[in-house]
Amino acid sequence: MIKLIQVSNLQQLSDDLKQIYISSFPFDERREWHELKGLIHHPQFCLNQVVEAQQLIGLISIWNLSYFTFIEHFALRESDQGKGIGTQILQQLIEQKATRVVVEVEEPTTESTRRRITFYARLGFSVCEDIYWQPPYSPDKSIVKMMLMSFPDKILPFEFIEIKKQLYRVVYQIFE
Length: 176
Prior knowledge:
Elements: E1 2-6, H1 15-24, H2 33-37, E2 45-52, E3 55-64, E4 68-76, H3 85-96, E5 100-106, H4 111-122, E6 126-127, E7 132-134, E8 144-151, H5 157-171
Parallel strand pairs: 4-5
Antiparallel strand pairs: 1-2, 2-3, 3-4, 5-8, 6-8, 7-8
């Protein structure tokens, strides 16, 4: 059985969890570990360990924003990918949330980025047509061109402006 266990204290931030996080996301697409640790008690942020048979196999971090839920990072150990676990986790999350669910994905320029988009699309997520740039997590990181996907319905242009504003302000701490 797959379980999501919320990280509620720093002792739960194991080296295994750190390794999954760092190895799963490019430098520019993740926070520094100490920055992630600093968010554990943020009222809108939730980092969950993905556990199967009492073994850590992944993580999913989400932000509970005013009218949508944002999945910031979602990763499984490579050996646990392709087994339907990711689908189970997202279906569980979608069932728990009464709001729209939004996720950033890289543009479909490689086989793995195309697979990621297809994965979310199979679950009913739609690609937003508006151009979106993920702000840098810190001054030494670069801005990254991404796409937003949403469930259950597509983000409309007038909604995109507010969603982007909330992401920039709350998640990335950028005030335009």
